[in-house]
Amino acid sequence: MPLHPQFDALLQQLAGAGGPTLSEMPVADGRALYRAMQPVAADVEVGKVEDRRIPGPGGDIPVRIYTPKGPGPFPMFMNFHGGGWVIGDLDTADSQCRDICNLAAAVVVSVDYRLAPEHRFPAAVDDAYAATRWAADNARALEGDAARLAVGGDSAGGNLAAVVALMARDRGGPPLVFQLLVYPVTNAEFDTPSYRDNGEGYLLTREAMQWFWNHYCPSVDERRNPLASPMAEKNLAGLPPALVLTAEYDPLRDEGEAYAKRLQAAGVATEHVRYDGLIHGFFAMSRIVAAGRPGMEKACETLRRVYSG
Predict the structure, then answer these.
(1) Which of 110, 155, 194, 229 is catalytic?
(2) Which domain covers residue 64, as residue numbers?
(3) 52, 133, 208, 251 — which has fewest CB within 10 A?
């Protein structure tokens, strides 16, 4: 279907602003731009928000913990933010974390994993997995229920969620009940039809994804590691159920959908929903652009159902 008018207007506004593209910017400028595009949503009230630092393999990991109103224990959701493993932080993920906390009635642990190029692959992976183990081990103190622990994220965060699910399966836990993969990065190839059709003009570009990968994992050989590209994992059996959300006008559309099909073929209960007319980023922008709202509502409705058993 045609590009949704709300996203068409957004893209025209961004094009009219001019300036360098993300891949032409210094990393610090790219981070500042993304932070300006994804503001904190402090007006969306939750029961409690707490910033903490937890032990990690490369030093303390900053996390932000969102607790719903009412009595616990609550189910738990690990959130890994998007931004190509290079940009993004706790603030850029704040809006979606507040929504998930309220709409899924879950404790959300948002993870500020180490970013590239200062910390290349597998630093982000190691932090994401360490934070997930920490949350499971400390569930009671967080008013959470470790038996109802899910992982999720958008874009590079979806990549990390998929990878943490693989690691939890292969490294003895923690047990996960679900993985939410929102337009996830699952491969380091740039030759799919969606890359050819949507690689220019729809916010996330082919050039930007190459820029992200070059910062995060410069070695082409290392990109074939399943902890970098989960599509490279030969055995996807035994993973937690998944919801995979993709967007029609997204260069990552095909690799996300291919991963969903591989999960299904491996016997993993997997639902896939493509949002026609939408672009990469619709989930993270669901409070800014109303057309992205159904994706957020679908994700949280599915989480509630999973958590209720």
Answers:
(1) 155
(2) 5-307
(3) 52
Report the alpha-carbon angle 123-194-121, nearest 5: 10
Structure tokens at 81: 């933010």
Residue 140: which CATH number?
3.40.50.1820
Active site residue 280: yes
Let me know if 155 is a catalytic residue. Answer: yes
Q: Tens digit of pLDDT for each residue in 196-250?
A: 999 999 999 999 999 999 999 999 999 999 999 999 999 999 999 999 999 999 9
Residue 308 designated active-site: no
The pair of structure tokens assigned to 65 is 């913990």
**From CA 161, how far away is CA 170, in angstroms rounded?**
14
Beta strands in the chain (DSSP E): 48-54, 61-67, 74-80, 107-111, 144-154, 178-182, 242-249, 270-279
pTM for the whole thing?
A: 0.98
Whole-number Å distance between alpha carbons of 88 and 85: 8
